[in-house]
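Supplementary Methods, section 5.1.

A reviewer requested that the exact input to the structure prediction be made available. We therefore reproduce it here, unchanged from the version used in the analyses.
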Amino acid sequence: MPLFPINLAPLGIRLEAERGASLETLLAPHGVEFPCGGAGICRGCRVRVVEGALAATPEMREIFTPAELADGWRLACTARVEGPLTLEIAQWTTPVLTDETRCPFEPQEGFAIAIDLGTTTLGVQLVDLATGDVVAVRTGLNPQTVHGADVMSRIQFALEGGAGRLASLIREALGNLIAALPRRQEVRSVLLAGNTVMHHFFCGLDVEPLAHVPFETPHGEERRMSPRELGWDLPGDTVVRFLPCLGGFVGSDILAGILATGIGDRDDLAALIDLGTNGEIVVGNGQRLLCASTAAGPAFEAGRIRMGMRAAEGAITHVAVRGGALECRVMGDVPARGVCGSGLVDAAAAGLALGAILPNGRLAAGAREFPLQHPVALTQADIRELQLAKAAIAAGLRILLDRSNSTAAGLTAVHLAGAFGNYVNVESARRIGLLAAGPARVLPAGNTALRGVRMALLAPARSEPAMAAIRARTEHVPLASDPAFQDVFVDSMSFEIA
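The structure derived from this sequence is encoded token-by-token as follows.
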């Protein structure tokens, strides 16, 4: 059977595929995501046909307008190769947030590898244990996204028989990143952190307890594996450890984040918030730490947003009101293709300022869309997704503050972890009611998971007791069973100034 060329523009990647091959299988390794797990009910895996032809399926006709179909837009999850193709997928290429902040270290021999296993992105660092230097960094996208952008979609896939597939995907992807590192034959240890679901998938553990209330698992302890088990090209005596979880959906990425930000050493009250697909929140100090997770959904990463995309070329990253009109900043100084998470929050705040979006989240005057920069606009459904996400985070934070006998005014610092927290406009986040703390107290913290893992590798004599102490005084609060959560969540839906 002949092979047809498949060109991915403007990445310069050329693939080959037989007639009838699934685009889902072809494109997933190159950054195209499938937020609904390939069900054909969202626009997350959209690609544009530049040259060649792809038939429009019934699912595509439901998702796209006739004009969009005529412009070449298709869903990769339901498309199959019919002949030579050139596809535009540049909106899914994205830098991955890493962290190379200098950390205290205890001189040791050899090298180690620090890994942040995220739901969406992967970060791998080679660390010189003798000097504390980050020698090399490799990043990539989590290939599990082909089975859904959020953890619940992947859990469902695992329960339907896909657990082994999810484990092999992530082990192979990390193995490839490790194989691209220099001096890997001198590596003595590998340390990973990630949320609870990533921990379970990587370690081959049962995720069934995480599929239903109370969302607790008996499998959250530290796990050790060998390079041979994982198929990694590392010395046979290399120790591979995955840090333990804190409870429920609060994983070792948050344990590492607490270590990195130092909130577990403070006398005053502080918070750590990771605004990802699964929002995780910690409130506390050196005496007591409360943690919780809340299903914020992927809106902060522009998932389930009609024209949502990552912070990459063509993304509207910031929106402001100038002279009574919108002013949009587009990454790469190119025509707008979509809007990323930080742009979405800015757009909602700007819409409120202009009166185009009402405090209850409705579009004013019966409008069907809120135009940003042609052809990008927000729909009523997009705004609703943002409301649900921000209400989940705001309600979770309020519950933890209530249990700490405090309010947002009592927080001396709020550390925002992750890529979204690093780039979001704090004033816009406050304007839509996402953050209640004053802007001077909100601190973008970067990739605290990766920094915390590196700290644990470089200074084990200090970090190991510190992490044990953090776990001992951390209480997991299951929000799903909290009698007040639903009322607080509904109360947090409004776009009111906090």
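Residues 151-179 form the longest helix (29 residues). These observations are discussed further in the main text.
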